[in-house]
Amino acid sequence: DVINVGFVTSSTNYSIMLIHQYLSIEDVNFSITERSSFDLLDLLENRVIDMAIIREPFDMNKDFEYVKLIDDELIVAGLPSFFHNDNPVISFDDLYHLPIIANRRWVNHMDTFVHETRGKLHFKFICDDNRTAISCALNEMCVALLPMSAISAQFQKNAFTIKRIKHEFIKAGLYLVYDKKHLDSEASKHFI
Known about the structure:
This protein is an alpha/beta fold. It has helices at about 10-20, 35-45, 90-95, 105-115, 130-140, 155, 185-190; strands spanning about 1-10, 30-35, 50-55, 65-70, 75-80, 90, 100-105, 120-125, 145, 160-165, 175-180. It is built from seven helices and eleven strands. It starts with a strand and ends with a helix.
């Protein structure tokens, strides 16, 4: 049996941990598709994949089952030289002064919150994949704005300083989404 699962690229660290527990089941293999949340919802709707792990915000009005896996938050990650203190939280006032790389999606998401604080973030780079943001931050070009779960443990221990953004509503939770009516394989049913 093959489980066709889609991941948003920023969920790969978490998603791999999730499917790891199913590796001991014999005769079950995984076909992994990595795309944006919106593309994965389209693939799910067209029955190309059995399920998807996607990140909010997204349209929850489609006729699917939505299971929240984790609450996640947007963070700022960069080399220590970009930050002026050891505080694990960064305010918007401090964030306004930093060169930032962010996934296009997070730029749009942040506009709402920045409007509330009447400031302006300095997006030095805008990209389509959080892996690009991590690479630029590691190369001392800027700080990366991305979900906490997109940062692997190796980066947390080594090069990066990670700061939570001081705002209670900046979340980027992960959801397992599937169509109960079209969940055909026993392996997929067991996975869920």
